[in-house]
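Dear Dr. L.,

I hope this message finds you well. Following up on our conversation about the binding site, I have prepared a predicted three-dimensional model of the protein together with adenosine monophosphate. For your records, I am including the exact sequence and ligand specification that went into the calculation, followed by the structure tokens. Please feel free to forward this to your student if that is useful.
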Amino acid sequence: MLGLMQDWPLLCHKVIDHAAQNHGGREIVSRSIEGPIHRTDYKTVRGRSMQVSKRLEMDGIVIGDRVATMAWNTWRHLESWYGILGVGAVYHTLNPRLFAEQIIWIMNDAEDRFLFVDLTFVPLIETIADKVPSLEKVIILTDEAHMPETTLPNAVPYEAWIGEVDQDFAWKEFDEKTAAGMCYTSGTTGNPKGVLYSHRSNVIHAMACVQPDMLNLSSKDRMMPVVPLFHANGWSTGFSCPMVGCGMVMPGAGMDGESIYDLLRQERVTMSAAVPTVWLMLLQHLEKTGEKLPDLNRVVIGGSACPRSITQSFQDTYGVDVIHAWGMTEMSPLGTICTLKPEYEDLSGDAKLDLQAKQGHPPFTIEMKVTDDDNKEQPWDGKSFGRLKVRGPAISASYYKGRGAEQFDEDNWFDTGDVAHIDPYGYMEITDRAKDVIKSGGEWISTIELENLAVGHQDVAEAAVIGIHHPKWDERPLLVIVKKEGCDPSKEEILGFMAGKIAKWWMPDDVVFVDEIPHTATGKIQKMDLRETFKDYRFPGT
Ligand code: AMP
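The resulting structure of the complex is given below.
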């Protein structure tokens, strides 16, 4: 017997309908690419998204077509998303930090027909457009007055293009499992793999994100997603904010510490989300200027492990709570969040910081488990570690065109490639990427833990640990350090600082100083490049 409830498909554009109807006047503030601060609201964004849909339809875009965006976080990018979604097409976010060859490969794989692009990236797209035969039209996210001279095919200024139609448009209706968005993973080996979100998965995922024990997002918040919409589905902010009618403050291209600070302060942002490197820049700015952030009450930190020193600084010096989060492009992307359940609510000082170094617990809709090399499930005891596997309705069932099939098993468990353990209260902690793990004398050493500890030293700007061949132990850790500007710590000082805080046999065998540590397009440490740089390195005496 079936239930007698209504069939109301979970379509993404219903989210912006809800925001416009119930929170219509809530502000969306953006640092525009042209310069000035721009202000709009959900009602206006919805109306203009309908113009985008109507205009796309007029130009022949139909359900299932891929429409790319290469843009910073602004109101126009958000309107483009909903306009693409409302006509049944698929928004395909492109990461401008990738190499040109990777972008060409990705666009050809996705067969993007149209591209919405910010002024910033027009020169980049001009160099690659003729290598993407499927690309028919480029919509430059600006007005006629700022339209650049360009060689791009069929380039039009966004404002004039949508200005040719009115807002009299009815969103398309279709099955909730219809493809909605596309984002390629930043795979470090081989070609990137396409993740294809559905309307249903985006809506379910946003509902999971806003819950009190997750982001605790509400109409009282003013959220600044520093994380770009092109990184892992924008961490859901494009859906979770309008879903609860939370105000949005979009940083545009201003991603440095000072620009982020200015917007946080002037726009009285209550919550923000970004990767650790962004927060490091902000904290350095605050340290230099002595400024404070009275309205900001919490920050979400994810994408890479959040060093304890960042958490401590935010909480102790600035009174801002840190919410450590873990996720993956394949998970829409939120996986776990480290908020305090009643069992841990009374923690304080070091014990609280220790807990906050964990990646946290999942919302309803995410199942997880840890398995050993024989695929045997490990107990949730906070120490038995192995490969982390997940499943749920907002987690990929496969990659685009069936690539990477080995990461999915017959029961839908997706192998994250992360190594983790889970404690009795369900808090997961990542110790490494499987491919970065160091095996010393048959025992595993967590590079993440060593890195987190090293950046806690006051003179260290960034730290990375890689395994180097050792004749006796097989592999031993080498600590690679970037010093803070104006500081000159010695190897002995750094090792002395670490001693006693970790098992003796985890101590790095050597420390080397470099000017820069390479990063991936989404801000993670590029260990493959580091291993290549140090491939001929040998520990003293070996
Ligand atoms: P991406 O799909 O680019 O977001 O990358 C996902 C990967 O980033 C995960 O599989 C983890 O290896 C890593 N990652 C994301 N968040 C965290 C975190 N809080 N701590 C440690 N690693 C993380």
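In brief: The longest helix spans residues 42-58.

With kind regards,
A. P.
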